[in-house]
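Researcher: First entry.
Model:
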Amino acid sequence: MRALPERDRRLAYELSAGVLRWRRTLDDALDLRHTDPRLHDILRLGAYQLRRLERVPAHAAVSTSVELARETAGEPAARYVNQALRRLAGGGTRDEGRVREEGQVASHPDWLVARWRRQFGPVETASLVGWNDRKPSLVVQPASTGLTTLRSSFEAAGFGVQEAPFGAGFAISRTPTAPRAPLPQSLPGYSTGAFIVQDPAAALVCRFAAVPPGARLYDACAAPGGKAVALALAGARVTAGEWRRPRLGRLRETLGRTGVAVLIVAADLRSAPFRPGAWDAVLLDAPCSATGTMARHPDARWRLSGTAITGLARRQATLLEAAATLVRVGGVLTYATCSLEPEENERQVEAFLERHPEFGRSTVHESVPATLLSAAGDFRSLPQRHGIDGAYAARLVREAR
């Protein structure tokens, strides 16, 4: 997609993200139960433009979809798509008030909404769903450039700059002189590593870890690299580990662009080439359901299942066991996720502590605002309460062998 002109790239992202956010509502309007599966996404794209995009004329949305259907499945499919979208357009275009009202439930799977209602109650769940259905802000954290210089360069380029929640970075917005929503690559200083794109929740997890300057830290699942950059800038001597080849490339790109002194190791945590007790600190930012970042990743709501969460929790337990062996006595193990689900978060940590009495919680309370700490002293951010991504972290110190 990077080969597309910027205008086309923006539209492609708007269409893909929008269809994913509103897929269920669009499917209900189109009634796809008896439609050729090859046409499902074509119809969704057309319907999304008709319902949600004022800047795309209705005739253009229909004609583009018809051409895609013709190329995909032939002339009968093109006629079907033409009729289906014209019926939809004739039923009242761009009824955004009704779509938003339906979207409080219809934009997410029933099982996920029911799970959240049990955990948060109906009012907070409605707020969470609403948060997920809004376009997220672009938030950046300084890297090779200081706060004042970075802010001045953004403002000089015509962008709006506001302090992000909890003082964790800058939210960048459009202005009359920069009317389009900013892309990271369009901001001054991107190519020279002046900043990284990172939600406040991720930046606050790094602060919560409270790794002492000079400590040797192993970031065990490091890609895409934002936390490794933040921890290195805070003074830790970071080694970043990653075993998935595509994500290893992203890690190299982030660290190379920012120029921070971080060693990269291509290694699976479960077989990492280090002796037991070799590290002062280990960060395990574990693979998870990512239910706290569904505003940024709308596809996640449709890929996830309750069974998948159970499987992820089992994998996280295995990774925690491997991470624990690497921490020296007196060292810190920080376990983190971007999940809202208890079995991936506090239940995971409680089970780990039962198995490992040599570890105990050790929260540095001044590291983050008290409103982000649970009763047990763990970090917990919730989109519907705090206006940032959902995240969890526990800071565990190895007290004895």
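Researcher: Second entry.
Model:
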Amino acid sequence: MKKTILCALAAMLFAVSCQKDNSQEDNSAVSKAQKQDWLTADLNSEFANSQKKVTAYLFSAEETAKLVKTPNIKEVRFVLGYLDHTIQINMIGIDENGQKLGIVNSVILKESNYDEQLTKLNELTISKTAKRTPLLNKHLLLPQEAFKGIEAWQKKLNSVSGLDEATSHEGSRFRYFTLESAVIEAMIDKGNTSNVGLFLGLNPKEKVTTILISLDKNNAIKKTSVTSKEGDDVYDATRPCPPNGDPEAF
């Protein structure tokens, strides 16, 4: 009798362990085929409807720390792929010669009730007295501007028109976005960061860009403290390829 109960409990535990959180989907590495598929993908209503379900791309702080603290890594690339009518994104670490030294796969966050969380960006401030390097200040983005960009991308998906223009440079689709690894390292070194959240948004030129926000264990937007209205730093100014970088190196 005891053996039967134990077997039943083991089976239940195994079943639970195999279940996925409905708000997240595991993402495999962006394959060469997926990269090529992205370059020719038809950004139609089917794509827009699928992409609207994507809240953010989550990069584990633990795995990201291992990547950006690898010796000789100078920059990271957020490489785009395409699968099931949805953009896929990986983070690749590169040295000063463009040699790839490591990779972190993202997990897609699909959270239908995340709008309330994003709206809180409008309530947050960024300390002007915080000690930051010139590099961090260069990439710093006001929370309100981040919200504006993310909202603009969602509106673009609602209208569908102009998606090719928003995701391309002079007719060539963006392949990856580049950022100095020191920016990512600063985000995860602040503590209590569980994920680096990559949100797609539109910049002032109405081109797709990557907006990076530190998230806690509940994937909530981090503040400097529970009661504070001051947010952890939000970053952008990632460089799209094309026109920046080598299109053949993605």
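Model: Note on the second entry: The chain has nine helices and 14 strands.
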